[in-house]
Amino acid sequence: MASFQKVFAIFVIISGSCYAEDLVSYDEWWGPEGSSPENDTSIRPFTVQFDENIITDLKYRLNHHRNFTSPLNDSAFTYGFNSDSLQSWLTYWSDTYNFTERETYLNQFPQYKTNVQGLDIHFIRVTPEVPSGVEVVPLLLLHGWPGSVREFFKAIPLLTAVDDDRDFAVEVIAPSLPGFGFSDPATRPGLGSSEMAVILRNFMFRLGYSKFYVQGGDWGAYIATDMCTLFPQEVIGFHTNLALSLSPVSLGVWALGSILPSAVVDSSVQDRMYPLLNIVEGLLRELGYLHLQTTKPDTVGIAMSASPAGLLAYILQLFSMATTRDNNNKADGGLTDTFSREELLDNLMIYWMTNSFTTSARLYSETFNIRNVKMGIYAMPTSVPMWSVHAKNELVYQSPTVLKFKFTNHIHATILDEFGHFLALQAPGVFAEDVLKAITAFRNCSINNICVHAS
Ligand SMILES: *[C@@H]1O[C@H](CO)[C@@H](O)[C@H](O)[C@H]1NC(C)=O
Ligand SMILES: *[C@@H]1O[C@H](CO)[C@@H](O)[C@H](O)[C@H]1NC(C)=O
Ligand SMILES: *[C@@H]1O[C@H](CO)[C@@H](O)[C@H](O)[C@H]1NC(C)=O
Ligand SMILES: *[C@@H]1O[C@H](CO)[C@@H](O)[C@H](O)[C@H]1NC(C)=O
Ligand SMILES: *[C@@H]1O[C@H](CO)[C@@H](O)[C@H](O)[C@H]1NC(C)=O
Questions:
Q1: Residue 113's domain is classified under what CATH number?
Q2: What is the pLDDT, as a whole number, of residue 34?
Q3: Domain contains 261
Q4: To test ligand 4's pocket by mutation, which of 92, 101, 106, 346 has the most ligand atoms within 8 angstroms of CB?
Q5: Cβ-count burial of 440 within 10 angstroms (0-12 exposed, 13-18 middle, 19+ buried)?
Q6: Ligand 5 contacts CB of residue 438 (under 6 A)
Q7: Is GTP-binding tagged as a keyword (predicted)?
Q8: pLDDT tens digit string along 240-292?
């Protein structure tokens, strides 16, 4: 097995280096045609404002819908969002969710916008006050779909806290991805994950950072992985709660491991990877939205933009499933077992207010296509130090043996026996602690050139 892996690794490195030039433009313009010949490099303060007219219209839509089709008996969430539990959400959103209070909540951190390659990028930036001798280090924190910067609100104070035991403190920089929430969408096709990686690197340059740490889950992980591959000089270390290698070698080793799982994965987490057929079947059952958005995001986007009930059902069903598959068997999807209604509705408000469902969903089509496969960035290895944390119910688990064909410097994997896909939202303490441990180890890599895990 080991020599087989080496041969494939060499193959990937060689094929990767064939592609390595001219992969992606570093200054492509994504804004409207002919706009801003003088590039605007300003950084402007921003506050979230829930427009009164939009709230009035939203409440009208929440209160005027046709009767929902009754669910089949005892189907719980297995056919999708169970309409028996939908009305309580709509009533809550319309009548109990306090728009004024939530707007204030969403403005608790300093926020800004700055224009990069024609797109206004919205971001939260929290800089800790530190005593002398403590270094402030920048962490780019990337959300995914159907999330937003709201996922990080409970983790941000923990991440930016100053601790006597550390000689550094973290400055959090959490942008809304282009096309998501308060960040502008592209005005032309082609803004996929790799192109976002370029935008976010240029964005960090704008803030004055030529070297930084990156954390990401979901799309944030995918984009950060591209950043590691394209910009190994800039990314000092990458922490992820969704370590994923789509490199053909990784996938091949995963598949071959079916013959002898113990060669590929530790027995304690073997059930997260095998039997492979069960894993694939489970993903096929749950990831229909992914195929839809990879092919026809604009069609589904029309419905999501017209109906807050539809948007809520579509997005919260995914929060339910991705937190634990067991939620499929609960009549209410188990949503409030894990999350507060406010935090889930805040996230929906970010999509609804900005009408950004369609532009966010396009990230799937712009990334999972022939053009990107030909670019081959996803298959190229990166030596940027990487630290992963694996929640029990994460959608995919890949062992270090599988990941190493993409991440040749994977320094540690934290295995969790609970929690799901939205780790920062569900378990901010666990999340923040793991990120801080990783940065401590990354600093060992970059400062002392010793790249090992402490414990
Ligand atoms: C504006 O930025 C683009 C890349 O984003 C660059 O190609 C162009 O030279 C810049 N123009 C000016 C006037 O700085
Ligand atoms: C909708 O549901 C209400 C309450 O169950 C019922 O009275 C009404 O007839 C239904 N409307 C239609 C069009 O089915
Ligand atoms: C579904 O459940 C309801 C209420 O428990 C019951 O009255 C009805 O007969 C059931 N329908 C079917 C087709 O089992
Ligand atoms: C909503 O929150 C604001 C600010 O906290 C408060 O003044 C107001 O009374 C609340 N409204 C309701 C209906 O509870
Ligand atoms: C840093 O490297 C030293 C030397 O190998 C090691 O003793 C220490 O545990 C490392 N610390 C971390 C956090 O990786």
A1: 3.40.50.1820
A2: 73
A3: yes
A4: 101
A5: middle
A6: no
A7: no
A8: 999 999 999 999 999 999 999 999 999 999 999 999 999 999 999 999 999 99
Ligand 1 pocket check: which of 24, 25, 26, 27 to mutate, most ligand atoms within 8 Å of Cβ?
27
Sheet holding 119-126, edge to edge: 43-45, 111-116, 119-126, 168-175, 135-142, 212-216, 235-240, 386-390, 410-415
Q: Can you tell me the distance from the alpha carbon of 245 to that of 238, in angstroms, rounded to the nearest whole number?
A: 14
CA atoms within 13 A on the CB side of 35: 14
- Of all atoms in ligand 1, which is nearest to the CA of residue 29? 5
Number of domains composing the chain: 1
Ligand 5 center from residue 447 Cα (angstroms): 11
- Among the bound ligands, the one closest to the CA of 98: 4
Peptide bond into 275 cis (omega under 30): yes
* Ligand 1 atom nearest to CA at 117: 5
Provide the pLDDT confidence category of residue 451 given band limits of 50, 70 and 90: confident
The Cα–Cα gap between 443 and 423 comes to 24
Minimal-distance CA residue to ligand 5 atom 10: 454
Nearest-CA residue for ligand 4 atom 12 is 98
Q: Tokens standing for 300?
A: 């589904």
Question: Is it the case that residue 52 has pLDDT exceeding 50?
Answer: yes
Residue-number span of the structural domain to which 444 is assigned: 2-448
pLDDT of residue 447: 77
Q: Give yes or no for residue 380 having a pLDDT over 90.
A: yes
Residues 75-88: what's their mean pLDDT? 98
What is the pLDDT confidence band of residue 227, given thresholds at 50, 70 and 90? very high
Kindly state the average pLDDT of the residues 112-129: 97
> Does 313 reside within a domain?
yes
What are the residue numbers of the active site?
Answer: 218, 364, 421
The finding on whether 98 has its CB within 6 A of some atom of ligand 4 is yes
Ligand nearest to the CA of 68: 2
Residue 324 lies inside a defined structural domain of this protein: yes
pLDDT on residue 120: 96
**46 CB-contact burial (10 Å; exposed 0-12 / middle 13-18 / buried 19+):** middle
Q: Is any atom of ligand 1 closer than 6 Å to the C-beta of 167?
A: no
Is 455 within the bounds of a domain?
no
Confidence (pLDDT) at 9: 52
